Amino acid sequence: MAITAGMVKELREMTGAGMMDCKKALTEADGSMEKAVELLREKGLAASAKKAGRIASEGMVAVYLSDDNKIGAIVEVNSETDFVAKNQVFRDYVAAVAKQASETTAADMDAFFEEKWALDPQFTVKEALSQQVAVIGENLNIRRFEKYEKTQAGKLVSYIHGGGRIGVLIELACENEAEELVELGKNIAMQIAALNPKFITENDVPADFIAKETEILTVQAKNDPKNAKKPDNIIEKMIAGRLKKELKEFCLVEQPYVKDTDMTVKQYIDSVVKVVGAPIEITRYVRFETGEGMEKKDENFAEEVAKAMN
């Protein structure tokens, strides 16, 4: 039976599900509206549709490391409330998403959502997410993931802070895969979680970033009345000094080590190098913080109660 735009529109109005989901359900149901509704409900899409517009900016970050330490993945899954983020059903689901991310071949979220859900391959990742929305009763979203696969000797190490509020996955390269690398990785991951550096070393800082920061510092210096009578060469030296100070804050290895501020992160790494007897390099890291950069729901309980009473 040919599926018309009118049929898709009618099913969408009945269920609130997405247009493509409605078309797919009607095709599968051979045009039967009743059967299509049933299919959408089975997949959790009809139940989740009304919740899809709600802001999901809480949630948690989770990390999965393979037993052989060759693969690691980090994911952020959002919920509407912090209460649900602490729910064990939700936490188990996020752990399953992290494992799925460790096995994925997807390059982006669209491809990831279309993959078969490892725990039940009759559904896609997107359909399994919709089912969780129906079970948990809140809008949920898999926001992002990153997968690391080791290509050289070393360790993948993870750190989760605040029950999943911040997560870090870091890769260390070292010929000697000693246990000391795990402790080193945890400590540096804690540093990344706390201070959120932008780069690993000064060599990693792009030229355009330095140019932009220099431009900002120049404007600041020239707008400061204290510098009105200072010659240009003195102002240039001031700007260079401020930039150098900024780069120490932005670059991980130049930061004061949080567990011992008398040394830098680089000096801490060097102390572990002496123990393991081989050079250690931080090759990459990723830091996810739940809800960063997202719109937060403005919760006012008194207003909510007043609205409900009215």
From TrEMBL:
The lineage of its organism: Bacteria, Bacillati, Bacillota, Clostridia, Lachnospirales. It is found in: Cytoplasm. This is Elongation factor Ts. Associates with the EF-Tu.GDP complex and induces the exchange of GDP to GTP. It remains bound to the aminoacyl-tRNA.EF-Tu.GTP complex up to the GTP hydrolysis stage on the ribosome. Belongs to the EF-Ts family. Keywords: Cytoplasm, Elongation factor, Protein biosynthesis. Residues 81-84 are annotated as: Involved in Mg(2+) ion dislocation from EF-Tu. NCBIfam families: tsf. HAMAP family: EF_Ts. CDD domains: UBA_EF-Ts. InterPro entries: EF-Ts_dimer_sf (IPR036402), Transl_elong_EFTs/EF1B (IPR001816), Transl_elong_EFTs/EF1B_dimer (IPR014039), Transl_elong_Ts_CS (IPR018101), UBA-like_sf (IPR009060). One of its GO terms (cellular component) is cytoplasm. SUPFAM superfamilies: Elongation factor Ts (EF-Ts), dimerisation domain, UBA-like. One of its GO terms (molecular function) is translation elongation factor activity. Residues 72-292 form the Translation elongation factor EFTs/EF1B dimerisation domain.
